[in-house]
Amino acid sequence: MDGLLRGWMDCRGDGWIACGDGWIACGDGWIPAGMEDLLRGGWIACGDGWIACGDGWIACGDGWIACGDGWIACGDGWIACGDGWIACGDGWIACGDGWIACGDGWIACGDGWIACGDGWIACGDGWIACGDGWIACGDGWIACGDGWIACGDGWIACGDGWIACGDGWIACGDGWIACGDGWIACGDGWIACGDGWIACGDGWIGANGAAMVEIDSNRRHFIGSSADFLCPLAHFLAFHWRKR
Question: What is the superkingdom listed in this entry's lineage (predicted)?
């Protein structure tokens, strides 16, 4: 396959789907010939949505993406990655509009605040410092570890990374997540949502080894694989429903 397609997506660690200059359209109900046997336990289902890799983006619509034990579901409005996961109930994550909706609550980055369930965190009105503690939002919570969360200045800092709300984006370590502008940046790579696609450059996407993708951020083509991203990000943000 290397002679045909330059990149690949590993859905479980041993099976893979070639992307490169090719692409996978699920909404139209097909996978390029010769790629069916590459799934081997990991798989992708899109329903009414679809995945286009050659053009460097992923759209889910009413469908979802499942990769081995870790998976991303968009139709029901949540993202799950192995042991670490982000759940939004019946809500959803919208980056193009600058906010993330979770169940009855939601996270608005463009407007500079985060709402979770019945409670919420207003960035413009003040701030919350966590130290080694955490912030409980409904049944979910945000763990800070040695970092902290400052909302008064419109951002949340966690460890070496931080989350900026006022400016409509979230920063994590050397990378960052931009919601207001409709995209997510991670390390040297980034994930674009507003334009309907995901790009990672030197960054990576994964779920405990379940879904690995690396693309050339300049050419926006999938060129190889790397380690996990979504799970560490999920742990980092701690939008999971079990405490440490």
Answer: Eukaryota
